[in-house]
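Appendix B. One record, verbatim.
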Amino acid sequence: MGIGSAHSSNKIRWGILSTADIGLQKVIPAIQRSASGQVVAIASRDGDRARAAANTRGIERAYGSYQELLADPEIDAIYNPLPNHLHVSWSILAAESGKHVLCEKPIALSAVEAHELLDVRNRTGVQIAEAFMVRTHPQWVTVRALIAGGRIGELRLVSGHFSYYRRDPNDIRSRVDWGGGALLDIGCYPITLSRWLFGTEPSDVVAQIERDPEMKIDRLASALLRFPNGQASFACAGQLVPYQRMQIFGTRGRIEVQIPFNAPSDRSTQIIVDEGGSLHGDGAETIEVPAIDQYALQADHFANAIRGVGTVAVSIEDAIANMAVIDALFRSGDTRRWEKVAS
């Protein structure tokens, strides 16, 4: 499935499903600034809301239903930032409408559900990817290259933390049945990065999960993942002080990523490489990564895949594997035992 032939511009024409904050604040402005794409339409179940968003963001068309947007023949790709429980169903409908799909993480509520997207991708021939923008950010590309180059010796441990505070029963992340909670919302980040850095899948996992007494969503989760050549550990929380950090430990050195997930687009980020000469960090090297919009990079990378240049950053197969880890962590939270990760 290629780019529609009706337009003279070489830019990918995007349609946005819903007026979700992540789209309005991050993804739409990034696509509009990118070299590869333009946002031509936005949809909401509320036509007035769609029109207001279109006016605010300089988008040509506004639709009062998602179906209308998918029926637009002048849209090449859609970005799906709907609530988690609607990711798979609307991504399938978009693919069956001939649109390429960049779906917000987590791509599904389970690995089994995510597998439905593999079938539809193979049947329709469109590109479908999970929107983990971190995987194309230069700071993470640099970290992976440092590990591959042997800078920290053999990789043994990836350790992370990601938290924010928000307790609002009206927030979509507060609904268990909609895929709310910390593990699906933000725990998925250290999982995808750990798997990517090790270059393999964990065999089994264990988790300690604390749930909100009223809303029942997981509000604090600590996890340990066992890989063939090491381990990954992380904590994530939706009712904790905002903080994020990733540490990568090898046999001879350590890498620290200071703003691993929400890397700012307006200032540089830092990677610290410490070869362990001093507990005070004397002699550690700070690598400055120039400011860049990781959402624009994500859009450009996806556009290239549509054009047949390279592949999507996070494939359906990759997304299914990430969901399998999350499934096992939820099982472990209930059984309080190590759980195998389904292959």
